[in-house]
Amino acid sequence: MILNHLWGLYAHPKEEWHTIDERHESFRYSMSHILLIALVPSLMGYYSSVYLGWSIGTGNKIFLTPDSAMIISVAMYIALIAGVFALAYLAHWMAVTFGATPTYTQTLELAAYTATPIFMSAFAAVYPVLWFIVLAGIAAIAYSVYLLYTGVPILMHIPEDRGFIYASSVVTCGLVLLVIILAATAIMWTNGFGPIFST
Q: CA of 114: how far to CAs of 79, 120, 138, 167, 191, in Å?
């Protein structure tokens, strides 16, 4: 089953990382996991912006037109998938420096399962109030970072001290990728691809 590690990553993460390490899945399996999990923020973003409306402080709720929300959701889906693949590539590229020799599929597993809590936090969009979404996002990022730090020594087969530095490097790369995605979003929005609000 595609999501068979999902519960384990929340209930007993270290044991689940060992399970993932013992039965490394195929590239197609990891790809399927990413394609499915990335649907959550895209679909929730669409649904909440078109049907529920976003509340930012006081004032009326903000809604997007269905067409505008669809374009943004598809772009978000592509950006999330590309971000996970880019993070996996950077983790694979840096691994040799830390004495690890993983396959690309192993680093893709690391990136995919580490990103899962962030993607799943999009369920918070059922209550699209800014402060609630921010709190859910912060909690998800914190747990994703925890998963990364616990998963790196296990999946990469390196000592914990080197694993800590390696994981910190991956976190830095993730932050750089986030800034790139935000910058690309800002450029697109200022060039006519911004959201269209419904009246």
A: 16, 11, 14, 11, 33
